[in-house]
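Box 3.1 — From sequence to structure: SusD/RagB family nutrient-binding outer membrane lipoprotein
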Amino acid sequence: MKSITYIFSILSLLVVTSCDNEFEQINNNPNVPTAISPDLLLAGVLRNTINDQVNEAWGIGNIVVQHTAKIQFVNEDRYLWGERNGVWNSVYGNMRNVQNIINLATASQQNNYLGVALVLKSWLFSIATDTYGDIPYTDATKAKSDGVYAPKYDTQETVYNGILADLKRANEILGTGSESISGDILFGGGSGAIIKWRKLANSLRVRYLMRISNRRNVNTELQEILSDKAKFPIFESNADNAALVYQATAPNQWPLYGSRVGSFDEFRASKSLVDRLTALNDPRLPVFARPVERPSSAGRVEYTGIPNGLGDTPALNYNGGPQGVSRVGLSFACLVCSTPAPVPNVMRGLVMTYAELQFLLAEAREKGLITTGSAETYYLNGIRANFDFYKAIVPTEYGINVTPSPEYFTQAGVAYTGTQQEKLQKIGTQKWVALFFNGLEAWFDWRRTGIPTVTPGPDNLNNNRVPVRYPYPLNEQSLNGTNRTEAVTRQGTDDLNTPVWWDK
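Predicted structure (token representation):
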């Protein structure tokens, strides 16, 4: 009996030893990497964040600044927004991988990847703070590294100081690394992308300096950028646009291309947009809107926008119903939104464009914040750049001529004449047109300038006030309640109508 027990013990030991010797090999999945490089993270961050920009423009950005309006399910248009967590989730979800790129690039001294990551960090946090105000910034993304699971909220002024410092540093270190950038689906990667990332860093600096210009003197910083373009390169043409080019085949097509036609057609061209472009005989109107299906007389080509902020019944019945209201243009449309189907990759995912930069510089020069260049030249450059942008991407089969006539620039509504306020109004209105489908940027800019006029619709549910921020996500109350409460006490009531720091 003892012999049998002894033999059994030996066999058991052999089995255990055998299993132990192979444990690591058996449990090591060769298809799941334990380490990753910056290029593999970069492509995903760019795709996710830019697509999120497009979707936020569609759902709220275009609506709140009255580029588009709704004919059904009109809550967004009436400012009954409820909880909107898309920006928060996008920024903080993607910032984990941006921080991973920063950590990897820092550890391996890859300054080119580090510079790119600092630009993306700045852009993402700018979206978050412009949307919500005070946000977790200094403590953000420190859960894994430092065990910070309840990050404090920094003031918006602190966030902006960090954004501007990171963009300046990015410009300085880009090009000082030996590594070639891969995974760069925005600018194509390689050595040629470095100058484009530097131009984006400095152009974004101009955007954000202008954003805070009502709260802080930014003249010196703006002039520094404009005075030394070798040291601080900025966008010089549409070739420098930070605009993601989509693919003709799934899954990297225009994000709205796969939308249901019913969902897409809830959104129509706004009366504000159609009327303003019609008054200027603006050839971009057919890019943004389609002719109504039931014109006032047979054979007429008519564009009719719907007023923003109508209730469900008046919105659905406006001008005789949906066939009397212009749909959003084919360049932005979904697969089943027209016959024949729209081209799947006409439009771009926009981060920032040369046209926007020129309008910012026109405003800065008109206000005397910079001394370089001519406000009129910057202004006209911005208009022409936006026309040229659409001329280059709108397919010839759409039959749209986006070339403005010479008279376009001399008419009273466009010519750079009048008082300073009238000139600023023209700059702001043209920039508003150029920011169509650029995330929430048109809303951010309108909140700062008040240009153009945005009037709440007749059936709005916000006491005739246009919203100026998103409330914080509700789960912050339970997950990070103390820090959120501190931010609300400092900033003001957590609702749609409390302005952020730069807007006060």
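Summary of the box: Strands lie at 68-70, 135-136, 153-154, 242-245, 267-269, 348-352.
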